[in-house]
């Protein structure tokens, strides 16, 4: 009987992982750190509230990227949606930034296709990988689960 209790206890302890590593955070492609110092600081216990806030915002940003992966025209100069990510500096202040990463798809009948020049007939789409964004969300949820235990 003691063996079974010890085995159950060991199993429970092995399943409860309150720790996460730098690589877990570094594998989230939507997060960009200014330096290794910022990455090392964010996982310290005293900064978990900041990390939690950043992770919740990251889910929102990833969802926004997924929802707009086919947006070819926005209010700003009729340009496509820009990929969003979170930048964290050394003092652990964060901001949502945008990158102009596009792909060109030939679709001359699309209302937003380029009308003149050598790119005529191409449509500019944001180059957003939906699978990467979904993986980001899954990784973030795993970390949040460990933090919120």
Describe it.
- The protein is an alpha+beta fold and 149 residues long.
- The chain has one domain (30-147).
- The chain is 43% helix and 17% strand.
- The protein contains five helices and five strands, in the order ααβααββββα.
- It has helices at 2-15, 22-26, 36-42, 48-67, 130-147; strands at residues 31-33, 83-88, 94-99, 102-106, 122-126.
- α4 (48-67) runs antiparallel to α5.
- Residues 1-18 have low confidence and may be disordered.
Mean pLDDT: 85
Number of domains: 1
Structural class: alpha+beta
What is the helix fraction of residues, given as a range? 40-55%
Major beta sheet summary:
3 strands, mixed
Alpha-carbon distance between the termini? 29 Å
Strand order of the largest sheet: 1-2-3
Spans of at least 5 consecutive residues with low confidence: 1-18
Strand content range: 15-25%
- Specify the number of helices: 5
Per the principal axes of the C-alpha atoms, what is the gross shape? elongated
Order of helices and strands: HHEHHEEEEH
Number of beta-strand segments: 5
Tell me the radius of gyration: 21 Å
Question: Secondary-structure map with pairings?
Answer:
Elements: H1 2-15, H2 22-26, E1 31-33, H3 36-42, H4 48-67, E2 83-88, E3 94-99, E4 102-106, E5 122-126, H5 130-147
Parallel strand pairs: 1-2
Antiparallel strand pairs: 2-3, 4-5
Summarize the structure.
With 149 residues, the protein is an alpha+beta fold. Helix content is 43%, strand content 17%. The protein has one domain.
């Amino acid at each position: 009987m003691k063996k079974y209790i010890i085995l159950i206890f060991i199993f429970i302890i092995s399943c409860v992982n309150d720790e996460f590593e730098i690589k877990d955070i570094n594998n989230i492609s939507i997060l960009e750190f200014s330096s290794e110092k910022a990455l090392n600081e964010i996982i310290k216990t005293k900064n978990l509230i900041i990390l939690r806030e950043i992770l919740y915002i990251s889910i929102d940003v990833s969802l926004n990227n997924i929802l707009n992966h086919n947006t070819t025209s926005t209010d700003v100069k009729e340009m496509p949606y820009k990929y969003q990510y979170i930048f964290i500096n050394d003092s652990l202040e964060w901001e949502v930034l945008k990158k102009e990463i596009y792909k060109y798809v030939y679709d001359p009948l699309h209302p937003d296709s380029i009308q003149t020049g050598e790119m005529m007939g191409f449509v500019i789409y944001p180059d957003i990988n939906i699978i990467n964004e979904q993986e980001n969300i899954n990784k973030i949820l795993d970390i949040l689960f460990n933090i919120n235990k």
